[in-house]
Amino acid sequence: MSSGPRPVSLTLTAQDRSDLEAVTRRATSSQRDGFRARIVLLAAEGYNNTEIATELSCTRKTVRKWRGRFAETGRAGLADAARPGCPPTYDDSVRALITAIACELPSKRNLPLSRLSITDVHMVAVTEIDHCPSPSTIAAWLKQAAIKPWTCTSWKRPRDPEFAQKAAPVLDLYNGTWNDKDLTERDVIICADEKTAIKARARHRSPPGPGTSMRVEHEYERHGGCTYQAALNASTGEVYGRCVTRNTRANFERLVEEVMSHPICSAADRVFWILDNGSAHHPNTFTWWLKKQYDNVEVLHLPKGGSWLNQIELYFAVLTRKALTGGSFASVVELMHQIAGFEVLWNAVPEPFEWTYTTKDLEKLLERHPTIE
C-alpha cells in the first residue's frame, strides 16, 4: 500500500536560516510571517507535514502549501501572492482631481464657504467628473492621504523686519549664553510684562460631584477690573507681581524697583530684563531709564508680535487656567487678593519653565513664514 507522495525536501543556506529565525524572534514580525517561517524551519529539520501540522496546530494542506512555495521561489514564496479581483473603478486622474479640490481654498471656486467638508468636496466633484466617487470613497481617499480640509489652524506671520535679530539673543539667554559666552551663576534673567483687563465677574457656581463637573453660570455681574504687572526669574521660577488699577509707566517702575531690590538681583553681576514693546516699558524711553537707575542691567526688547517668546506669558497662562477661569469675584479687591494668593502659592514651590525653543527652531519658522516688510 502506497504511503503517498513524499514531502518536498528543503535545504536552507546559512543566510536563509538566520533570516527566518530572526523573523520568528522579532517582536514586530506579524503572526503570519512568523508562522510561515516556523513551517520552513521545521521542514528543514526533517519533520514531515503531519508532524509540522500537529506542532503548529494547522492542517497538512497549509504546511504543504508554504513548504512547496519556499522550495520553488525561496523567501519570496512566503509573501502573499497577488490576489485576483476586478480592475479599479476609478483611475489615478480621478483621485488626483479629488485631492486637488480638497487642497484648494473654497474661494478659488467661488464657493461661499470658509472650509470644505466631505460633502462639499463631493458636491464640487460631481460637476467635474462624469462618474463621480461616492462621499464614502472620497473620505477613504482623503484619510489615506492625511488630508482634512474641514480643519484649520491659526498662525501669525512675523511683521518685524528685525524679528530674528531681536529674538535670537533672548533665545540664547534661555539656553545659557550671551554673546557666545556661557552665563554664570551671578547672572539673572527677568522676564516681565503685564496682564491687562482682568475682569472681576461675580456669578453663581456649584461644586463638582460624582459624574458631574463644576458648573459656572453663564451670566455674570461686572465689578471692574485690574492689571497684573509681574516679573519672572527664569532661573528659579519665582514671580514678583503687583496688581494695579492702571497700567502706567510709574506703576511698572515701582515693580522694577521691587525686583531689583531683591537680594538675588542686587548681588548679581548682570540682570537681563526681557520685555515687549508695551507702553509701560516702551524701548524708546524705558531702556534709558533702567540703565540710568542700575549699572548691572541689560535690556532686551522682543520683536513686535514676539510676546510668545517671553516666559512670563507661560506664568500668566497658568494663572489664568488655575486661578481665574471659572472664578467668581464680587469686587476688584477680591480679584486682586486671588491673584496675589496664587503668586504666594506658586512661590512656595517655584519651578522654572523648561524652555526648549532654540534659534534653530526660529530659523525654521522664518523659512516657512518669512517676515512681512
**Biggest sheet character:** 5 strands, mixed
CATH topology of the largest domain: Nucleotidyltransferase, domain 5
Structural class: alpha/beta
CATH H level of the largest domain: which superfamily?
Ribonuclease H-like superfamily/Ribonuclease H
> Strand order of the main beta sheet, please?
7-6-3-8-9
Helix content: 40-55%
Description of the structure:
The protein is an alpha/beta fold and 373 residues long. It has three domains: 65 residues, Arc Repressor Mutant, subunit A, CATH 1.10.10; 53 residues, no CATH class; 206 residues, Nucleotidyltransferase, domain 5 (2-Layer Sandwich), CATH 3.30.420. It is built from 14 helices and nine strands. It has a five-stranded mixed beta sheet, with helices on both faces. Strand 4 and strand 5 form a beta hairpin. Helix 2 crosses helix 4. It is elongated, with a radius of gyration of 34 Å. 23% of the residues are buried. Pfam families: DDE_3 (PF13358), HTH_32 (PF13565). GO terms for molecular function: nucleic acid binding. This is Winged helix-turn helix. InterPro entries: Homeodomain-like_sf (IPR009057), RNaseH_sf (IPR036397), Tc1-like_DDE_dom (IPR038717), Transpos_IS630-like (IPR047655), WH-like_DNA-bd_sf (IPR036388).
Quick synopsis:
With 373 residues, the chain is an alpha/beta fold.
List keywords for this structure.
14% strand; Winged helix-turn helix; nucleic acid binding; two-stranded antiparallel ribbon; Arc Repressor Mutant, subunit A; elongated; Nucleotidyltransferase, domain 5; 3 domains; 41% helix; 5-stranded mixed beta sheet; alpha/beta; 373 residues
